[in-house]
Amino acid sequence: MRDIISCFSEKAVNVSHSSCSSNSSSVRNSQSLVPSLKSAVTCVYEVILSTGKQLLIRVTWSKNPTSQGLAINFGDDDPGTCFKLNTNSKFFGKKKGNKVTESGHSKIEVFWDVSTAEYDAGPEPVDRFYVVVVVDSEIGLVLGHMGEETIAKKVKTSTTKVAKSSLISQQEHCSGTTHYSTKARFCNTGIIHNVSIRCSMEDQGLNHPVLSVCIDMKTVIRVKRLRWNFRGNQTIFVDGLLIDLMWDVHDWFFKPVTGSGVFMFTTRSELDSRIRLEEKLLQKEHDRIEFSLLIYASRAAADEKAYQSMSMSMSETRSS
User: Fold this and answer.
1) What's the mean pLDDT in 261-269?
2) Which residues form the domain of 139?
3) Domain total of the chain
4) Predicted structure pTM score
């Protein structure tokens, strides 16, 4: 009997924790490239209070050569309720503190401490920081790695409630080489996965760009003759979930200066994704939150010459 995954789709690719050890030459080659740099990362969280009230919180970390900052938007993105930390220097102006605002008849208080934050190449800190959002006296969102005891001293009491929060969307803007790398958790109960996207000349020495997308060092799609297949989609399986992977790199060829390639990973609804083990199907519906990862990838000037030759070759082929 054929397994359920092969019955579902002939082209679907399964990514499991046990299969992540498999590797290929294309994956090893992609690791040799320095990944491009992120200029902005936006995460959208759905917060559900004990009263049943729902609130969307959008957290954006950004960085450019002259500034670095954090912006938090609540609900309908009313500019008056937007919380910002931003200066014209490479460091935050006020590195710790708290601020009170209102959104949708809710009292919101933000506590933060980035005074000892550690950063990698991206705009968001990776360690020794915290950002806590309290909504109507409930802890709605906690970001950071300062430890629960440190956070508790700032905002939590014995009667403080903790709301339920879920990451529902992650959006990243990056530029540099044609190698893009990030991390993503596709469901609340899943593990954090390494996601790598690479475009290179690998088609048997021919002048044809090849697009490869890898999750945990396993190639999930490989698109040859990318100049003709600059848009497409593929179904993959991660953590027992069906995920639609879509790409659009049209602007890499036709708007190389201002355009960006777009990559989207979207989990399907539970009705379309019933391939879990029987015991996991017994989980409550609200424990399964749909998630999307959106990556905008632009190219550096160093790549321009190579892609100009691709576009010229493409134009000559179309006109002949």
Assistant:
1) 91
2) 43-168
3) 2
4) 0.79
